[in-house]
Amino acid sequence: MNEKLKEKIELFKTILDRLPQGIVIVSPDLKIEYVNRNFLIFFFPGMNYKKFIRNYKDKGKKLIDIFDFKFIENSIIDNLENIIYTMPSNTTARTYEQVRLYNKELNQEFISTLTIIPLFENEKSKNVIGYLLYIQNMSDYYGIQDKYDKTKLDSITDALTGLYNKKYLYETLINEVENYKRTSINISLIIMDIDNFKKINDTYGHLAGDEVLKRLALIVKNSIRGQDIPCRFGGEEFIVILPGTNLYNATFVGERIRKKMEEQDFSNIGINRKITISLGLAELDDLITSNPIEDIDPDFLIEKADEALYYSKKHGKNQLSVYYKNKIYPLFDFYQIYETF
User: Fold this and answer.
1) H or E element: which one contains 306?
2) Average model confidence (pLDDT) for the chain?
3) What's the confidence (pLDDT) of residue 16?
4) What is the structure's pLDDT at 75?
5) What is the 3-state secondary structure (H, E, C) of 81-127?
6) Nearest 5°: phi and psi at 206?
7) Marked catalytic residue, from 176, 236, 255, 294
8) Cβ(253)–Cβ(331) below 8 Å
């Protein structure tokens, strides 16, 4: 890789990894040099960063080896190479609507808005050292159903709730932890559990229990951002991964979910009582400051959040507790302690 291009990637990757759109940086000959997290989520669901680098970047693959680019609104422009190699030297950016991306290896098709930004050696130079491609998946907007392999999609999705499943949770967390080690972008993790769920199943039946699970899943989906990752961890346990979010801000997400669940009316399925959840929260940045970085993995992060969940259960349920600086705090105490550091 060109050293100047490598410097630019190192300079900007922390910002690029936070963006909600897919980002790819390629060399002048279109070899892949960098992709952000959302590029993988959109176009390679379930694949972690290390695997993508091993399969594509390390093998010197070009972007056009993976994708066919068809420019729907302009039939004269027939491929990405022609676009890039005919760009005037003074171009700062060009945007193309309705670009059809066909993933040749996964047999998937997307309609996207594509912005191409030349990366120059410096502000005064006209020497192009690479290109940044800003890709926004617009398939739903244009009413075109992505041709996902249904088996692959089913393998990362929980059939009952529509949330991601445990397999995808671990794949994503592995990727996020590795991403943290490269970029220091923080991750918070919330784990939640429906209080007295066995009693709900025993009293009202498993069909009613399933409806409660689906209702909580919907609340979770409607309470988080697009880049957050909601998963069903197993049984009545759910996990939400919050990239780029610290403990303090994550508490508001957890409390929003908890309060919405407490306010739900389940009388339409024969349950005439409030149903509540207990939650635990941990943050990668906090764990790194208190533990050797080599000890930090997805299980460690989940374990600490689960310890906080257990504290919530033990101390009255229907509450959020926080793992912070090797201790567990109920929410009110956490706010007081957090403000002193």
Assistant:
1) helix 298-314
2) 86
3) 86
4) 46
5) HHHHHCCCCCCCCEEEEEEEEEECCCCEEEEEEEEEEEEECCCCCCC
6) -70, -30
7) 236
8) no
Q: Which of 134-143, 244-253, 319-328 has the lowest mean pLDDT?
A: 134-143
Least confident range from 72-76, 168-172, 189-193, 278-282: namely 72-76
Q: DSSP for 16-84?
A: HTT-SSEEEEE-TT-BEEEE-HHHHHHHSTT--HHHHIIIIITTT-BHHHHEEEEETT-TT---HHHHH
Given the structure tokens 């390629």, which residue do they identify? 26
Instruction: Please give the Cα distance from 15 to 33 (Å, whole number).
Output: 16
236 catalytic? Reply is yes
- ∠ CA 62-66-69, nearest 5°, is 95
Contacts of residue 286, Cβ cutoff 8 Å, sequence gap at least 6? 247, 323, 324, 325
Q: Which residues of 330-341 are buried (b: 16+ CB within 10 A; e: fewer)?
A: bbeebeeebeee
Q: Please give the pLDDT value at position 241.
A: 96
- Cα→Cα distances 7→128, 130, 240, 266, 285, Å: 14, 12, 34, 56, 25
**Residue from 83, 303, 309, 78 nearest 192 by CA:** 309
Q: What residue has token string 């959020």?
A: 320
- The rounded distance, in Å, linking the Cα atoms of 208 and 277 is 16
pLDDT at 122 (0 to 100)? 79
Q: What pLDDT score was predicted for residue 147?
A: 46
Alpha carbon distance 326, 340 (integer Å): 16
User: Using an 8 Å Cβ cutoff, are 194 and 212 in contact?
Assistant: yes
Place of tokens 């059939």: 159
Residue 45: φ, ψ to 5°? -60, 130
Domains of the chain: 3-152 (3.30.450.20), 156-338 (3.30.70.270)
Which helix H or strand E contains 280, and what residues bound it? strand 277-283
DSSP state of 140: T
The rounded Cα 319 to chain-centroid distance in angstroms is 25
